[in-house]
Amino acid sequence: MRRFYRGIFIVLVAFRYGLDELVLTSFQKPWLRVLARVVSTGRKLDAPRGQRLREALESLGPIFVKFGQVLSTRRDLLPPDIADELARLQDRVPPFDSKVAIATIERAFRRPVSDIFVQFDERPVASASIAQVHFATIRDGMGGIRETAVKVLRPGMRGVIEKDLELMAMMAGWVERLSADGKRLKPRQVIAEFDKYLHDELDLVREAANAAQLRRNMAKLELVMIPEMFWDYCHPEVIVMERMKGVPIAQLDRLWAAHVDIPKLARDGVTIFFTQVFRDGFFHADMHPGNIQVSLEPDTFGRYISLDFGIIGTLTESDKEYLAQNFVAFFRRDYKRVAELHIESGWVPEGTRVDELEGAIRTVCEPYFDRPLREISLGMVLMRLFQTSRRFHVEIQPQLVLLQKTLLNIEGLGRQLDPELDLWHTAKPFLEKWMTDQIGPRKLFEQLRAEAPRYAKLLPQLPRLFHDYLEHRPADHRRELLELLAAQKRTNRLLQTIIYAGIGFVLGLLAMQLVVRVSVF
């Protein structure tokens, strides 16, 4: 019955904001479009459709707000106006009762709050769709006091999530069956993706582990600060971390007044993003302004402070290499190489003509080069690229969805900090250096060092393995193998002869040059 009542409430909210009219007008069947006009009669639906959808999600509660945030990352599936409006959903969720937060902490650690913390501030300092944060202090084990931030999961989230996800999946199935664009939009896959993100965020220990990994990765860069996690006080429903003191990055007036180098801050943000993506393949995928602060402390002045690590993106080595080659080709305006990479990776059908795909990509990207960030929108470039992708039946790669979302966050951050920032020229040197490192001697040495333990174990066994092979293989195979070894020896002797001849030739040239110099002298 609770699920039934929840369904009725969702329907009423959808009707109030005219979402039924939005859905019906998206269908191709004429009678459904007529029905859309009928149901919208007598209702004031003057607000833009994106605004109505955003307000409806806010009315439906934290889970739908989070769904709107995740959905805003799928710009390949949404019209630009709706995607832009959903991107405004920035954790504007009221806090829950502090007494409930305290009860959750005491249940998690089986102790009174007064035994865990020296001091606990019952007034929350931040509230999001999944959890809220309180400040507190703890003893560090050496007689000192550490200031901390305590993140507490909203109560009853798992049950609410399961019911709402079931309803979402049911509605997604309807859309997929009834809408002409249903199969292309893949609403059930979007819901499944949302399900994964939500369940990851419900485990706060997972978030703490993400933060610890990012902290290790970024330790030597000295551009961003990640809070330390106190593992003795971490639980799936509660985590305690180092309190970070900074100014929210959206408060530019305070940053200017403190004499922070804002243009450098913008460039540092690009460096942090590309370092996490291409060096580590492990990146903060929720970099909206609400999760970023700037330190004004003397020792760390001007550094970024990252918060909230529930959503993390990962890339494999092949993903990183493919993306880096694409970016470098874009920055060099080598659109033919971009087209070839799409075909080589299998993202487009094998029969796709390279020249046609190259021309389409050039048409999208060329108008945006050599402009400051204030005059371009990566969101618009990506949207046009996705439109081109649909024309050539490009398969959207799920592992790159979070990367797309984060790149758009970086664009918004860069536009806010320094409208003159040229993202292309800022990122190009970094990517070119990364590509050089991937194919240079340093990378070869690193790979050999990584494989050294395996080789050290294998090499002593080679004579025995070779002997066993000869003993257990038929005579004809042994004969072929011996002939192969004889041929290899002849090849080695030939190579040695060539090398010695080359050395002799070089020494002869040096001797001739020495004679000439002596004669001139």
How is this structure best described in words?
The structure is a single chain. The chain has 4 domains: 1-92, no CATH class; 94-127 and 130-243, no CATH class; 247-439, no CATH class; 473-520. By secondary structure, the protein is α+β, with helices and mostly antiparallel strands. Helix 2 (19-25) packs antiparallel against helix 3 (30-39), helix 15 runs antiparallel to helix 16 and helix 16 crosses helix 17 (354-365). The strands form 3 sheets. Strands 1, 2, 3, 4 and 6 form a 5-stranded antiparallel β-sheet that branches. The protein has a 4-stranded mixed β-sheet with strand order 5-10-9-7. The protein contains 23 helices and 11 strands.
Q: How would you sum up this structure in a few lines?
A:
61% of the residues lie in helices and 8% in strands. The protein is an alpha+beta fold. Strands 1, 2, 3, 4 and 6 form a 5-stranded antiparallel beta sheet that branches. The chain has a 4-stranded mixed beta sheet with strand order 5-10-9-7. It has a two-stranded antiparallel ribbon with strand order 8-11.
Descriptive labels:
23 helices, alpha+beta, 5-stranded antiparallel sheet, disordered C terminus, 521 residues, 4 domains
Structural class computed from helices and strand pairing: alpha+beta
Measured by DSSP, the beta-strand proportion falls in 5-15%
The largest sheet, given as strand count, sense and whether it forms a barrel, is: 5 strands, antiparallel
General form: globular
Q: Quickly count the domains.
A: 4
Mean pLDDT: 76
Distance between the termini: 106 Å
The helix content, as a percent range, equals 55-70%
Count of extended strands: 11
- Radius of gyration over all CA atoms, rounded: 30 Å
By DSSP (H or I, 4+ residues per run), the number of helices equals 23
Low-confidence stretches: 515-521
